[in-house]
């Protein structure tokens, strides 16, 4: 009885294309061009390192001095994060 192996998922090429961050975003993640997936990972690393998740509602991220120019406000939800970051990549 042969077991069918599930084909390994290939990453979408659009997600793996290196993108250049804007100067505002570069202040948080660095200025080198990285794929969109890495941008998101680096932002979350920064948020966790600086303890910026709202303790009362973990879905919200409180902005510090580096994130405030990026977000344009003092707090954003994690669901807004992707949309905000997309505007800072080219």
UniProtKB/TrEMBL annotation:
DM2 domain: residues covered: 14-90
Domain of life (superkingdom): Bacteria
CDD domains cross-referenced by the UniProt entry: SWIB-MDM2_like (cd10567)
PROSITE patterns, per the entry: SWIB_MDM2
Entry-linked InterPro entries: SWIB_domain (IPR019835), SWIB_MDM2_dom_sf (IPR036885), SWIB_MDM2_domain (IPR003121)
TM stretches of this protein: none
UniProt-recorded name of the protein: SWIB/MDM2 domain-containing protein
Source organism of this protein record: Orrella daihaiensis
Top-level taxonomy: Bacteria, Pseudomonadati, Pseudomonadota, Betaproteobacteria, Burkholderiales
